[in-house]
Amino acid sequence: MANLENEGFDYWLQWQVPVCALIIIIPAIVAVILIYKSKRAHLSVYDLWVPCWKELNPLWLLIYRALVFVIMFCLLSLDVALHGAYSFYFYTQWTFALVTIYFALGTILSAHGCWTHLKKSATKNEEGDGFLKRGLDESESTTISFRSNKVWGLTKLQIHHERKEIDQRAGFWGNLMQIIYQTCTGAAMQTDIVFWCLLVPFLSADTFRLNLLMGFMHSLNVVFLLLDTALNNLPFPWFGFVYFIIWSCLYIVFQWVLHACGFTWWPYAFLELSTPWAPLWYFALALVHVPCYSFYVLVVKAKNYAFPKLFPHAYVGSSL
Q1: Do 160 and 129 touch, CB atoms closer than 8 A?
Q2: TM spans, by residue (predicted)?
Q3: For the segment 234-257, what is each residue's pLDDT rounded down to a tens digit?
Q4: Global pTM?
Q5: Element (H or E) spanning 21, and its range?
């Protein structure tokens, strides 16, 4: 722990500071430029709430997301009740809160999608069929059958790519949900890997004590996201990596601002700037973002490769 006098103006004049700053600023600038210049494929509104399984009723995805939100919100509330606002001094709580927001938004959009479909079915007086669409190019015309059991009044669903519904896209909240999904998957992987592979084995019992709440907050986030990935139909492109980078850069900037305002304790020793090894640590942290996000891209690729072969009549599929 650094002394207060060591974190005055001279602290920020050390040669490590501008080097570490460049390691943060350059990826952040590149990420912002890519976001500004990107022309991504549009997101279908039905990808937000329709599962990737033909026989799975969308209500089950809604129930799963709502249940996970309640569990994560309770855990986060308990952590805040025990430690106060100090909890958000850590990247773990930042990420855990982001995953909680994802499931909250997913619950709302799933409920809205199910409710909209039920209203549409009632208006059209269709007892067995409804219409779900995916985004297609104007020249494409594909019809995919999607059926689910009748549960709580939600009838069989079929995905029909009709011309009049092609342009119906996810709005602001739908795109925000996908961005949060792409961000928190990589961040959750990074949080859990650093915690279980770096902090738990190497920190002494005098400075670090593992408890049940810590264990839950550094494992359930990834478990819940993996289960949601197995159920949802959200695309997971490589482009989402830029949001993950910006998220981590925001956290480090947050820590630097706190220390510039007089805080002297770093929540993670590898963020300390006074050591000559600081640039190496920051560069290593920047590099670890790649395998963390790559892992999740591979998970989605494996899902789309293996599930159609294992369950050819049950799996609809999702796109990268």
Answers
A1: no
A2: 12-36, 62-82, 94-115, 179-202, 208-227, 239-268, 280-299
A3: 999 899 999 999 999 999 999 999
A4: 0.85
A5: helix 16-37
